[in-house]
Amino acid sequence: MGENKQIEQKRVDEVREQIAGEISKLEQETSKRKDEVVHIRKYFWDEVKINTDTFDDYLETILGLRQEAQALAVSQSSHRQASKRLATLKRMERSPYFGRIDLREEGADRTEQIYIGIAALMDESGEDFLVYDWRAPVSSVYYDYQPGAVSYETPGGTVNGVLEKKMQFLIEGGHLQSLFDTSLTIGDEILQQVLGKGSNKQMQSIVATIQQEQNEVIRHERSRLLVVHGAAGSGKTSAALQRIAYLLYRNRHQLNADQIILFSPNTMFNRYVANVLPELGEETMQQVTFQAYLNRRLGQSFDLEEPYDQLEYLLTAARTSDYAARVAAIEYKASIPFFDAVNAYRQSLEHTGMVFSDLLFRGNVLISRHELDERFYGTDVSLGFHNRLEKLLEWLIKEVKQRIKAEYTQPWVEEEMQLLSEEKYRKAHRYLAKKRGFKRADTADYEMEDDALARLLVHQKVKPLLKEIRAYSFIHINAIYKQLFQGEEQLKRWTNKPLPSNWEAICAATVAMIDSDRLAYEDATPYLYLQELIQGFQVNRAIKQIVVDEAQDYSPFQFEFLKQLFPATKMTVLGDFNQAIFSHAQETSDFHSLTSLYGPDKTKLIPITRSYRSTKPIIELTRRLVPNGDQIIPFERDGAIPTLTRVKTKRERHTQMAAQINRLKERGFSSIAVICQSAAESRNAHEALSEQLELKLIATSSTEYEQGTVVIPSYLAKGMEFDAVILYDTAVYQDESVRRLFYTACTRAMHELHLFSLGDDSRFLQRAIRDGVLIITKP
Ligand SMILES: Nc1ncnc2c1ncn2[C@@H]1O[C@H](COP(=O)(O)OP(=O)(O)OP(=O)(O)O)[C@@H](O)[C@H]1O
């Protein structure tokens, strides 16, 4: 062992001793806290005296309850904090830190050695840091600079200095495996080592090897909207998760994990990234998919189309005129001109166009939609749309209560009274007695009058109706939405922008879908938006940060929607237009249009161009698949050159493919994906390959992130990565509309990529073939 290594190992040992001491103290404390919590839970009801005889007794009981509940909350929170710290320390015991910088600050008389790890650690005196948290202001020097002049920002201002030395450590199980003085070595050995490893079951934190451009993403705080546009494998998801950990640390007194939402592409992806924050000692944020939100809001009213079903249709349906209309509809309904049209339409509803539903009671019209219409449009426009609706609602409730009185003497009431069960009768009796002021012990003295019982029965029946009225069920949103689709002349009242040429066909298809209680994915957001504009937005002010990953798959319309839904939030948006798989984004190549969301002053765009996931030979191929691929810079990691196998029959393909998979397995690759274009192709591939080897099929409904050998549709593989990727058939990627899907599929490979073509090669491979970055094999 070199002298340096010995010295550093000694320090590692000393720091570990300090960690062990803190662990043992904390273990005692957590067990004490746990006992406290258990005790409070167990004896909760013994500690409070329940007495509700007089008002004072009642008040005292409430106060007692509240005190106990508070004590429980405090103990639970301390226990949670202590457990979290304990878990972090246990991780640090295995690997206390990963970096060191020797920094001489301007004006200081000595150079300080600063060690950086996943969390801070003080020495015994509590005065000096043995380890700095990677998110501390000074730690940014480690990520941003090579030795030389440096500066970093602190809450108190900019600090300048000289970085004299920078070291990286790889410590495992308390042993210093390797150390690198980055001023002496070229390249990034540790990053090489990390990236060279086989893929783990789940995404890992990248804290030890964050790159400068990623660090900017992680630490940027000023803007309301941060937009990160980065190549496939450039670490956008990783940086986003590190950023969440950073924001939680920086704002630890104002922000907690519940106030952050990560919008992810699917549930399987949620599982894939679930470990990163806990690994860093932070609680994990809320994770949702946009679809889950739509389902929650609209799922009861409609059979809602899933985004992947929309895609599957686009990939597999015959190219008819219906198909062209659908593609045009998807693009238009995602656009800002349509968003503006919906807003203008809603404005116009102030004067005309609202559609109401008849209010029925026991199948009969109690208040007709014409009455509602007259009433609404009879109120003064200057009151404002929502006030007028509010007034209508108040009138309605009053009117229903009034009109319902006519029911008291109807024969159905008499009939129901006769048929009332014993128990229901007793309940009604008890209720009315109480209402008449009878004490509990004296209720038997109350003689129930028939007409009181009749009123009670009618009121019980009308209750659900009143509840529905309060939820605005009398507004016929379906009909109002459909009015947008009554032909070109109609829509032109609300927009002066060009409409798709097949607008009439789009109108017919949209109305037909809604009439059969189905809602296409492209209609879901506009429909919900219109509903919110009419009924009042159900906003969420509690959320302070939202992070949208794979943002190229969200329409401008959806972003406007998110902005209104979360009025108090800052937004981080990460994506790559080369991977835009939904057809509304086919024409777009960057996020500049998002600048209008909050305005240029509140928006920051950060591009990341370096790609880390794949070996250099793989990136040399994938960057030749997209028009602007020359801007993608590969990280220098060597590996096998991708192959292209041309086969003549399906049988030949499956035999060759199975042999390739077996070879990869023998070489120790544990995650291998056969990527197909669609779910339909995946099912066929799975069936054929299963005859030769064991492999799993991943479908849209899958929630687990599977290890091993899998067959997966291209659009589901996005965001994920595999040791080796086998592309099932390049021949199906000919149309420009699937170029990005092809790129997405190929960029999932970390170490090896093998392509197969049955018949023609994909035309997008021409350049790669010409440039010789592919080995072509013919069986
Ligand atoms: N600084 C880094 N240190 C170590 N590993 C890194 C770093 N940056 C990225 N990686 C690794 O590169 C791979 C790709 O990262 P990630 O999935 O975050 O990229 P992405 O930009 O979201 O990719 P895509 O858009 O293709 O889904 C991951 O395995 C990640 O761990």
TrEMBL record:
This enzyme's EC code(s): 3.6.4.12
Residues that hold ATP according to the record: G230, A231, A232, G233, S234, G235, K236, T237
Keyword Hydrolase carried by entry: yes
Keyword Coiled coil assigned: no
Keywords, alphabetical: ATP-binding, Helicase, Hydrolase, Nucleotide-binding
GO MF annotation terms: DNA helicase activity; hydrolase activity
Domain UvrD-like helicase ATP-binding as annotated: residue spans: 209-615
UniProt cross-references to PROSITE patterns, sorted A to Z: UVRD_HELICASE_ATP_BIND
InterPro entries, A to Z: DNA_helicase_UvrD/REP, HelD_bacillota, P-loop_NTPase, UvrD-like_ATP-bd, UvrD-like_helicase_C
Tree of life domain: Bacteria
Name this polypeptide is given: DNA helicase-2/ATP-dependent DNA helicase PcrA
Source species: Shouchella xiaoxiensis
Source taxonomy: Bacteria, Bacillati, Bacillota, Bacilli, Bacillales
